[in-house]
Specification:
The complex is a heterodimer of chains A (about 600) and B (about 575). Chain A is of the alpha/beta class and about 600 residues long. Chain A has 24 helices and 21 strands. Chain B contains 17 helices and 22 strands. Classes of the chains: A alpha/beta (about 600), B alpha+beta (about 575). The complex binds siroheme, flavin-adenine dinucleotide, flavin mononucleotide and iron/sulfur cluster.
């Protein structure tokens, strides 16, 4: 990619430089390449600017007029401000805080905020998200930005114009420079506001040209450290920025949205890649386990020639939730139970699998308590704690400082009590924003967007399977890719389980998402699944394939993926008028051409 | 504005009028794209434009406001749901209809029924996918929701006094006839909700003989009052008819017009107003008079500024004489001079009453009109059981209460037994203060609510009860009405003590309304919390207990006591 992009930049380099750079570029991994670009950006802003068009095209910085309005007053004033700005030849855009993409804030140079206050000194409903973002830990530094705030309110309320005051103070706190003093407007605000707007625009006019160009520094180019590579031995301690449920009240599931910071880490990834996370086991479970074994948690054991306390070993080093057959085989002798030994026998593999899947290690120990066991022997029987993989739900290009995950929490009761999944339980219950978690990226060559930005894309992602497709859309939106996008999503209930609903709605409105079909299995009398929706749309779906569409499936490997696969073959057979063999071959060919890719688990 | 000024009315081209007028005009008689909106699987909402149109069909899009910000953080759209209002002229329905609605409330809505201040039922929390099922159920029960909301003739209300059975029956049927006459007629309703095939609409066929394509500038409300009871607050109706009896015969009605409650904080050009009596008409002229008044509003009402689009402004801007002239011209005759009448109160009579035809009627107090089962008060189940046996009628009252009407002497014992079985409380169980209080719905369903009302007034009343008892007037009534915002759905501006919500936990307090709705109240405290409210009301109520004259209502006392000035014309409300 780097090589041809040199032409795109109609390179100012000398032949030697070009050759050097091309040779280097040729054997850089995408991660290294991105880091190098960032590195050069640090040295010469212009390069970085080139993959961020909005910066490259900056002449005189535009005034961004952000409004927070509930009953329309602030909105009206914002419109007015925009007209007056344009009237005096300033370039300006007016945006409802509700529609504003927070990550754009870092690039703003001139910010004019007009906001009302509602509730008891609360931001107007539509402004709530933006307000929280600006006042939260994710807010970018705003050095080099200039701002002014107009506050609407009603002096008969206790917290008069509170929201305006808050923004005013916070923007300064983030390093932005206040161009003129805020004014607080009471219920008859027209004149005061009108007059203030004129003064504000005067001030902005002066700085509009001054602000030209200095945009690039705003991108915070990576520091010039050599790109570190993160892996299982050397994971990145990523700070948790956000950790909130996506499932609404009344859902019988819990699926969470998790945002990790990778700012300044040099970590990079592509849509379709997977984040590996090293969990810590649940302390309560560790206690129950040592108790069940009749062992003392402080007793030392040796793991990979390292001495540590049993308790710590079970929490940080050993697999104690997933039951692997080898564990049963190694553990059985320690219990002296003939029954378990028999179950562990090669001939009863199937039974053993079924037994293991429905239990955690603690359950096995409670089913078959050891007579007397030595701590070392037990930990030796356990597998080393495995990292868990999560499809990355965000695009690096859209959001270079963060990785987003969509995590379904595994929890429930076994006959012995409450159990939860190691990693999902860890993320759901034991990490707050501010904590760090050990992670690294696993590339996933076999789950990639088409190189051709104009190729149509069909995505089937029920449940958490939708995660990578959020990354796909962010990427295609950021790249302004022309290709059509069609998403099939499914879950249990429309009202509580429609993961990322408002984001899909926005993408549909903006045309980034061409169409979306949803299947909610528990809303109606009879269950419907994504494959049923595919069938209902079989004609269009086949047309898309014929037009070169790429077909992606992510999520449940056990039932969903096979059903979707079979449905795809059926659709090709019926719509294409093929025989079974031909249809199967058609789909195989799609796979060979990498136009049918799966990421299932 | 003078009667010459036509710059804001129907005579103007659409582009000069409020966007809603174009919306109505282009809606193909209220069809819009409602069908497509219902089919959209990606959202539980309907399009913004259709949202305006469904109101005409008796349907409001709302969302559970308790969940709003929580769901925004969950990246879920607001918990969209719908409120559906039944058209129930005079609040009259049958037991079989009660049972049908009760079932629908549990199958398609949030499991409650809500009796409104215009004596009908509302369903809350209806999901988009259940809307059609609900609408068809209502239709199967022999009812509809046409014009329950929207810029048209709203539910026609009527005094509940079945014990004056002859006159009551006559006025009831008149209310029904008027509602049926004024309800919009477009086939859109049957096509969208009842799957009726779109008939071949012939171009020059007149779909809406009274309204035309743009219907009315704003909601329009009729009410019938039968003295001495003014339960419907006849002076707050756009058009009120006051029954004039001649012995126990119905002679006709005084016509009263230009009333309304709606106002907007910080906009002094908006105000609540009392209707004024303009004359008398015979019973057989009522429908004609009603229709002609609506056409005056249709032609002259403000279609530019929706906050100034009610009948009351049309009349106040041009003067009562202009209005009478315009009306009598359209009637082709003049109204007779108004006759004498006397109102005593605007509350309900609770408990058992014998009608002059020997049937019995029992009025239950239903706090804020909400019918649901609460622990140790299975109201909904009890009423369901009664509906299973009752052979008479039900009458919903404009004070959000329920009258089990026309119980034969033989049946009375059976009904009493069921009332007892389900511990449906005797109205006497509640203080007079509580029994004469009304709260609008407000949170969590009302999109316009700024403060709690239905969920809060009961607590405030409890606190006021203590004050009243300590003052030694625990058995007396003061009319207290709370609205969660300035719109005044509980008719708070004619209450002796009125509240309108300003923000969470904050209310405006109004004092001095007339005991039988004849006088507006006036702002006394602005945007205050409960502590401040009680701090001011306690001494006032104590003083009232000491200094009131015989039979002097609280509303009169606060004026004599100099707390507020009496307001007899809405134009003085904001002074
Ligand atoms: C249910 C009810 C209150 C109650 O607790 O019973 C009610 C509830 C609402 N009213 Fe009302 N109004 C209700 C009687 C009234 C009354 C009292 C009356 O008519 O006797 C009034 C004052 C009289 C008047 O019309 O002036 C009233 C004046 C309003 C207004 C202000 C109109 C104006 O001219 O400014 C609005 C807001 C609007 O229309 O823009 C409104 C709007 C609303 C809405 C639909 C809010 C909205 O537009 O989104 C409320 C739905 C809340 C909910 O969740 O159910 N409602 N509303 C009453 C239903 C009556 C019915 O069955 O038709
Ligand atoms: C390529 C790939 C991508 C993935 N992407 C995602 C993604 O985007 N989002 C996502 O959520 N997941 C994703 N996964 C799955 C994820 O990696 C984990 O497997 C999942 O989160 C469960 O891990 P855990 O540590 O929480 O549970 P584990 O500790 O691994 O599993 C708990 C074990 O306990 C057993 N058990 C038995 N009874 C119970 C009980 N009553 N309660 C609880 N456990 C019980 C379960 O059978 C299970 O074997 C992906 C997997 C792969 C391979
Ligand atoms: C429910 C509600 C609560 C309000 N609370 C406050 C408040 O706490 N402080 C304040 O200064 N203004 C408050 N206001 C007044 C508004 O800020 C003011 O009306 C402003 O002009 C509204 O602007 P908007 O139309 O852009 O929303 C409140 C208004 C409403 C309707
Ligand atoms: S008064 Fe306001 S808050 Fe109450 S129901 Fe009416 S519109 Fe809603």
């Amino acid at each position: 990619m780097q090589a041809n992009s040199l032409q795109e930049w109609n390179s100012p380099l000398t032949a030697e430089q070009t050759e050097l750079l091309e040779r280097l570029a040729a054997d850089l991994s995408p991660e290294q390449a991105r880091w190098a670009a960032g590195y050069l950006a640090g040295v010469h802003g212009a390069l970085a600017a080139s993959d961020r068009p909005q910066a490259a095209t900056a002449t005189a910085a535009p005034v961004t007029i952000l409004y927070g309005s509930e009953t329309g007053n602030a909105e009206g004033l914002a419109e007015l401000a925009c007209q007056r700005a344009e009237a005096r030849g300033l370039s300006a855009r007016v945006i409802d805080m509700a529609d504003y993409k927070p990550r754009e804030l870092r690039n703003e140079r001139l910010i004019l905020i007009i906001t009302a206050t509602h509730g008891e000194g609360d931001p107007p409903d539509p402004a709530e998200d933006f307000y929280r973002f600006v006042h939260g830990r994710k807010a970018p530094k705003l050095e080099g930005a200039k701002f002014a705030v107009l506050a609407l309110g009603d002096s008969s309320y206790e917290h008069y114009c509170q929201t305006g005051r808050d923004f005013d103070a916070r923007l300064e706190g983030l390093g932005a420079q206040r161009l003129i003093e805020r004014v607080d407007c009471d219920v008859n605000f027209e004149d005061t506001a009108g007059e203030w707007i004129d003064r504000a625009l005067d001030a902005f006019a002066e700085h509009a040209d001054a602000a030209r160009g200095d945009n690039v520094v705003a991108f915070g180019a990576p520091s010039n450290r050599p790109a570190p590579t993160y892996d299982r031995k050397n994971p990145l301690a990523a700070e948790v920025l956000d950790n909130t449920p996506l499932t609404g009240r009344g859902s019988d599931k819990e699926t969470r949205h998790i945002e990790l910071s990778i700012a300044e880490s040099g970590l990079a990834f592509e849509p379709g890649d997977v984040l590996c996370l090293i969990p810590k086991n649940r302390p309560e479970t560790v206690l129950d386990l040592t108790a069940a074994l009749g062992l003392d948690a402080s007793e030392t054991v040796v793991i990979r020639n390292r001495e540590l306390a049993l308790g710590q070993a079970l929490r940080d080093e050993c697999e104690i939730t997933l039951v692997a057959p080898p564990f049963v085989q190694a553990y059985a002798p320690l219990t002296g139970s003939g029954e378990l030994a028999a179950l562990a026998g090669e001939d009863r593999r199937k039974e053993l699998m079924a037994y293991a899947r429905s239990r955690q290690v603690l359950d096995v120990v409670l089913d078959y308590p050891p007579q007397s066991i030595d701590a070392q022997a037990f930990v030796d029987a356990l597998r080393p704690l495995q990292p868990r993989e999560y499809s990355i739900a965000s695009s690096y290009n859209a959001n270079p400082d963060e990785v987003h995950l969509t995590v379904a929490v595994v929890r429930g009761e076994t006959e012995h009590g409450y159990r939860e999944g190691a990693a999902s339980g860890f993320l759901a219950g034991r990490v707050q924003p501010g904590d760090t978690v050990p992670v690294y990226v696993r590339r996933n060559k076999n789950f990639k967007l088409p190189a051709d930005p104009d190729a149509p894309v069909i995505m089937v992602g029920p449940g958490t399977g939708v995660a990578p497709f959020r990354a796909f859309l962010e990427e295609r939106e950021e790249a302004a890719a022309g290709g059509r996008n069609w998403l099939f999503f499914g879950e249990r209930r429309f009202r509580t389980d429609f993961l990322y609903q408002i984001e899909w709605q926005r993408w549909l409105k903006d045309g980034v998402l061409t169409r979306m079909d949803v299947a909610f299995s528990r809303d109606g009398k009879h269950k419907v699944y994504v494959q049923d929706r595919m069938r209902e749309r079989s004609r269009e779906l086949y047309e898309w394939l014929e037009q070169g569409a790429y077909f992606y499936v992510c999520g449940d490997a056990e039932r969903m993926a096979p059903d979707v696969h079979q449905t795809l073959i059926d659709i090709v057979r019926e719509e294409g008028g093929h025989s079974d063999e031909q249809a199967a071959e058609y789909v195989k060919q799609l796979q060979r051409d990498k136009r049918y890719q799966r990421d299932v688990y | 504005m003078t009667d010459k000024d036509r710059s804001h009315d129907l005579s103007q081209p659409l582009e000069r009028l409020h966007p809603d007028e174009r919306l109505k005009f282009e809606s193909d008689y209220l069809r819009g794209t409602i069908v497509d909106s219902l089919a959209d699987p990606i959202t539980g909402a309907i399009s913004e434009r259709d949202n305006q149109l469904t109101k005409f069909h008796g349907i409001y899009q709302q969302d559970d406001r308790d969940l709003r910000s929580e769901r925004r953080r969950q990246k879920l759209e607001p918990a969209y749901q719908f409120m559906v209002r039944v058209r129930l002229p005079g609040g009259l329905c049958r037991p079989d209809q009660w049972l049908a609605l009760d079932r629908l409330a549990r199958d398609c809505a949030n499991g409650t029924l809500r009796i409104t201040t215009r004596q009908t039922f509302q369903f809350h929390g209806v999901l988009k996918r259940d809307l059609k099922k609900l609408m068809q159920g209502i239709s199967t029960a022999g009812l509809d929701t046409r014009a329950a909301c929207g810029d048209d003739t709203r539910g026609v209300v009527c005094t509940v006094n079945p014990w004056q059975s002859r006159i009551h029956a006559e006025v009831e049927s008149l209310a029904k006839a008027l509602s049926d006459h004024m309800a919009w007629r477009s086939p859109a309703y049957d096509e969208i909700w009842l799957d009726q095939e779109p008939g071949t609409s012939d171009e020059n066929e007149i779909v809406e003989p009274i309204y035309g394509r743009t219907y009315l500038p704003r909601k329009f409300k009729y009410g019938f009052a039968v003295p001495p009871i003014n339960d419907i607050d006849v002076y707050t109706q756009d058009v009120g008819f006051i029954a004039i009896a001649d012995g126990d015969e119905l002679a006709g009605f005084n016509v009263c017009t230009g009333g309304g409650m709606g106002r907007t904080d910080n906009e002094p050009q908006t105000y609540p107003q009392l209707g004024r009596v303009v004359g008398f008409c015979r019973t057989d002229q009522v429908i004609d008079v009603a229709e002609k008044i609506a056409t005056v509003q249709r032609d002259y009402g403000d279609r530019v500024d929706r906050k100034h689009a009610r009948m009351k402004y049309t009349i106040d801007d041009r003067g009562l004489d202009w209005f009478k002239r315009e009306l009598e011209q359209r009637l082709g005759r003049s109204l007779e001079p108004a006759r004498d009448y006397r109102f005593e109160h605007n509350g309900d009579r609770y408990g058992w009453f014998e009608g002059d035809d020997g049937n019995w009627h029992y009025t239950l107090f239903i706090e804020n009109g909400r019918i649901q089962d609460r622990d140790n008060h299975p109201l909904m189940s009890g009423l369901r059981a009664i509906a299973g046996e009752h052979e008479g009628d039900y009458l919903l009252t404009t004070n959000q209460n329920l009258t089990i009407a026309n119980v034969t002497p033989e049946m009375r014992e059976r009904i009493e037994k069921l009332l007892h079985e389900y511990a449906l409380r005797d109205p006497a169980h509640y203080s007079a203060l509580r029994r004469s209080s009304i709260a609008c719905v407000a949170f969590p369903t009302c999109g316009l609510a700024m403060a709690e009302s239905e969920r809060y007034l009961p607590d405030l009343i409890t606190k006021l009860e203590t004050v009243m008892e300590e003052a030694g007037i625990g058995d007396d009534a003061i009319i207290v009405r709370m609205s969660g915002c300035n719109n005044g759905c509980s008719r708070p501006y004619v209450a002796e003590i009125g509240f309108s919500g300003r923000g969470p936990g904050k209310y405006n307090v109004y004092l001095g309304g007339g005991y039988h709705g004849q006088r507006l109240n006036k702002l006394y405290l602005e945007n205050v919390d409960e502590a401040t409210i009680l701090e001011h009301l306690e001494p006032m109520i104590r003083r009232y207990a000491k200094e009131r004259q015989a039979g002097e209502p609280f509303g009169d006392f606060v004026i004599r006591g100099g707390y507020v000035a009496g307001v007899h014309d809405g134009r003085e409300f904001n002074d």
